[in-house]
Amino acid sequence: MSTNGSLRFEWLKGYARNVRFSISVAAELWALRDSLRLCIALKLLAVIIELDAKLIVDLLQNPNGYRNCIDALVSDCKTELGNIPKVQINHCYREANKCADALAKRGPLLSQDFVIFLDPPAEVSLLSLPKKS
């Protein structure tokens, strides 16, 4: 299993993480937390977050905590969200974010636990090329 993300509009940075054992909800929360920490490190003031996991969107918007194995990750994400001045969280369908999907496929292949890509990997660059008519 892996987590991944990309900061886009123009390529800023991307990342992939190799998560050896996890449930999918926890992996999505790890990805979000990694993305938020990268946004904070880059000192971004406004961020639009698109998540294909509706459950994560719902967890973030619920003011009550959950007492289970993902509570700490949800809490971490909420704390990091508070460190970015302007944040919008949207649900999107998996097919809408092919860049994140391509990075997710890289995670299990990594020899390191976490890699930041300064330039888009080839498989992501191919997705962002303009289509010829």
Automatic annotation (TrEMBL):
Molecular function via GO: nucleic acid binding; RNA-DNA hybrid ribonuclease activity
Gene3D superfamilies: Ribonuclease H-like superfamily/Ribonuclease H
Domain RNase H type-1: 25-106
Listed name of the protein: RNase H type-1 domain-containing protein
Top-rank taxon, per record: Eukaryota
Organism: Lithocarpus litseifolius
InterPro entries noted in UniProt: RNase_H-like (IPR053151), RNase_H-like_dom_plant (IPR044730), RNaseH-like_sf (IPR012337), RNaseH_domain (IPR002156), RNaseH_sf (IPR036397)
